Amino acid sequence: MAGAACAIRLRSLGVAVDLVEKSVFPRAKVCGCCIGEAGLKVFSQLGIRADVLDSGMPTRRWCASLAGQRIELSIPEGVAISREVLDPLMMNAAVRCGANVSMNCTAVVKGSTRDGVSVQLDQNGTTSLHDYSCVVIAAGLRSGNCSGLLPWTEVPHGPFGISVMASSADVDPGVIYMACNEDGYVGLVKLADGRVDVAAALQSGQASGAHGDPITRVRRILSASQFASIELSEFGTVMTTPPLRRSRRAGHGRVLAIGDAAGYVEPFTGEGMTWGMQGGIAAAELIASPFGDLNDVGDVWDRKLAALLRRRKRTCRLVTTALRSPAACRIAAGTLRLFPSLATPLLRSMNKA
């Protein structure tokens, strides 16, 4: 999503773009499938808000099980949409804007100098070498070390993510469910096609793994929550991620990283996708700036991205850390049950465009 957003914005600024995607769409991906109000504003910028809303399920309520208590809050307008639907929408928008899109293609940065970036493309058994004035890496959580150009400043660690589609008549449309305990948290949301997206962040490590396979652990979290009556069935393929938390240098020379490739905390209710798209747009505007120097655009981007997301990631990290603290959950649950309006400033902060 970050890469497509960057490509769409670059084309709107008159910059020629080759957009390389290793997969063939549509394809499933580990994702919570929820976009908040800030994400919808980004879709408006990209010209696809109406298409997204037509293809998704509107979300207006958040229902959480915290410390044995059920909390329900109204949330700003959002949408639940599967990546099998959303990613092709964004890719098609990039094509309409004039981006040259290559699917089922892998790209490897072979070298970067003051004059440009050399990239090897492999597609359908054919290998070719191309030179670019600038390269933006949007390869997600499995982006590796970016050919050594963008080293980790915080190596991948912490919880891992899982996602699976299921069926349930007990999950109400328009509601985002979240259940939390010391093993992690599980989110449920109904999609427009009737399926339920089940997404979770679970503790990693040998001790946590002894609790069972990911689906067993998800069921255990739900059964101990206020959502124990929700029956899930017809599970699809279980997808997992590497450990989620990580940070890296986001740019150097003529190479930039955006989206999950640039770092990750544990966002929920759509922050991760929104941050990725916002970063993609900001990177495009930096690259196309008539006052910039592409020789150092990556170094400028490293500082700019940190400033762009610092406050938002700090808020999200505090919330996800609190969700794993029984004492913090009890305090939060009791307070929100009595004074639900206290959540408004947090929701407003998380949904700023």
From TrEMBL:
SUPFAM superfamilies, per database record: FAD/NAD(P)-binding domain (SSF51905)
FAD-binding domain segment(s): 2-289
Transmembrane segments: none
Domain of life: Bacteria
Gene Ontology molecular functions: FAD binding
Family matches, as InterPro entries: FAD-bd, FAD/NAD-bd_sf, Geranylgeranyl_reductase
Name of this chain's protein: NAD binding site
